[in-house]
């Protein structure tokens, strides 16, 4: 739940012309930060479809563009556990790194295949490719 303290902050400068409120997913993220006493600063970034694209568009302290290693790459996956049920995972790595899928399977002892960031997996979190926010997954 957002605190009264946050509601006082002027956030309207972040809205686009056709918007009149902070998007619901942003409110959830703000609540996560507040509840966990994590400092945050709101800014508006252009839509991006991958880490390289996002890093080039990030607004940090009035400057556009950040190092790729500062961008967060998130991979959603789903795998079967021995009892046949499916288990969802979220893996975060720096934007300039690659994920070694074989290493992940071996390290976690996953025997059966993994479905990586498919539309089906992403839909379970009500997000689309390129809209991943790891703070919404808690």
State the end-to-end distance: 14 Å
Shape: globular
Strand order, largest beta sheet: 4-3-5
- Look at the structure and give the mean pLDDT: 79
Q: Helix proportion of residues, in percent? A: 25-40%
Structural class computed from helices and strand pairing: alpha+beta
Number of E-state strands = 5
**Helix segment tally:** 5
Low-pLDDT stretches are 1-8
What would your notes on this structure say?
- Strands 4-3-5 form a 3-stranded antiparallel sheet, with no helix packed on it. Strands 1-2 form a two-stranded antiparallel ribbon.
- The chain contains 5 helices and 5 strands, in the order αααββββαβα.
- By secondary structure, the chain is of the alpha+beta class.
- The longest helix is centred in the N-terminal third of the chain and has 12 residues.
- The protein is 27% helix and 18% strand.
- It is globular.
Topology:
Elements: H1 4-8, H2 24-35, H3 51-57, E1 59-60, E2 63-64, E3 72-80, E4 86-94, H4 101-108, E5 114-116, H5 119-123
Antiparallel strand pairs: 1-2, 3-4, 3-5
Give a quick set of tags describing it.
disordered N terminus; 138 residues; alpha+beta; 5 helices; 18% strand; 3-stranded antiparallel β-sheet
Summarize the structure.
It contains five helices and five strands; from the N terminus they run H-H-H-E-E-E-E-H-E-H. The protein is an alpha+beta fold and 138 residues long.
């Amino acid at each position: 739940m957002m605190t009264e303290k946050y509601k006082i902050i002027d956030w309207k400068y972040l809205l686009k012309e056709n918007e009149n409120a902070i998007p619901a997913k942003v409110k959830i993220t703000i609540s996560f930060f507040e509840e966990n006493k994590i400092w945050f600063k709101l800014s508006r970034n252009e839509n991006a479809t991958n880490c390289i694209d996002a890093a080039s568009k990030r607004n940090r302290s009035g400057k556009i563009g950040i190092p790729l290693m500062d961008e967060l790459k998130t991979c959603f996956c789903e795998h079967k556990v021995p009892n046949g049920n499916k288990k969802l995972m979220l893996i975060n790595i720096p934007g300039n790194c690659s994920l070694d899928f074989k290493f992940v399977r071996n390290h976690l002892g996953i025997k059966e295949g993994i479905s990586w960031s498919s539309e089906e997996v992403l839909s379970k979190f009500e997000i689309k490719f390129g809209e991943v926010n790891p703070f919404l997954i808690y």
